[in-house]
Amino acid sequence: MTGNAIEIEGLTKTYAAQGNQPPKHALKGVDLTIPAGSIFGLLGPNGAGKSTLINILAGLVRKTSGKVRIWGFDQDVNPRQSRASIGVMPQELNLDPFFTPRAALEVQAGLYGVPKSQRATDRILKAIGLEDKAEAYARSLSGGMRRRLLLGKALVHRPQILVLDEPTAGVDIELRQMLWQNVRRLNEEGTTIILTTHYLEEAEEMCDEIAIINHGEVIARDTTSALIGRMDAKTLLIHPQDALPALPPFPAGVEASHRRDGALALTYRRREISAGTLIEILRNAGVVIRDIATEEPDLEDVFVALTSNKSEAA
């Protein structure tokens, strides 16, 4: 499929008032498109509305208003087709402890109406590294193995879209690497991946595009590189030949500090001053520069800046 895997227009979700608590507006008119074939990050602080959005896509929560199209199917007009187009790996380890991995995959496939002749249970077990645990009860599996099984359950009906909700929370490095290998392989085969994660370096490495949601609204949506490019601040690391007795005066807006390794860190805004100007100031002050390096902003800087600004505005 070309175009968009998911199209969301004016999506709202309001939970009814409980006791003395007023109604909760979990989603406030969300507009979002997710390109087919991409690895798309959905980020936001706790309580931002990510889980509500995912549960609406999965058909587990009813929206209050708005339009949702999944793989071209309108969720209101074609609920079964839209639900069959998406698989969700939840954050919670919700497994029946008395089912084996093989039985869990077979039951899940049956729930989706996959005929026995078309089931790929053995292939999935091999892909998620549980081939040798196929007949072990789920209660005997380690936490990492259970998380792999959740991935397998999300794949039994061969969905075009796979949602990974905090897939690597609390898992070891080996499992994380195995999971991302599988995700990249699925994406190369054409599966659209939607990822929520608190590990921002993970989103920065994996995602083609990212949307940041806060207080039920999408506050940013762009390619990963463009989002990072929004941060204008940059740090110039100067390693002087000799220790600096005193710092020369810098223009307003330049923050100067010393690092433990003896480097001078100059943080500045690229639109206001250039690195060349700062270097010239140092040279005019008699500073002999041994080495120069730069530090660019990362996704964590963007995330903190956007969500903190939104919180202050609210």
TrEMBL record:
Listed GO MF terms: ATP binding; ATP hydrolysis activity
Pfam families: ABC_tran (PF00005)
Keyword field contains Nucleotide-binding: yes
Keywords: ATP-binding, Nucleotide-binding, Transport
Residues of the ABC transporter domain: 6-240
Keyword Nucleotide-binding: yes
Record-linked PROSITE patterns: ABC_TRANSPORTER_1, ABC_TRANSPORTER_2
InterPro entries: AAA+_ATPase, ABC_transporter-like_ATP-bd, ABC_transporter-like_CS, ABC_transporter_ATP-binding, P-loop_NTPase
PANTHER family with a match to the protein in the record: ABC TRANSPORTER ATP-BINDING PROTEIN, ABC-TYPE MULTIDRUG TRANSPORT SYSTEM, ATPASE COMPONENT
Protein name per the record: ABC-2 type transport system ATP-binding protein
Organism listed in the record: Rhodovulum imhoffii
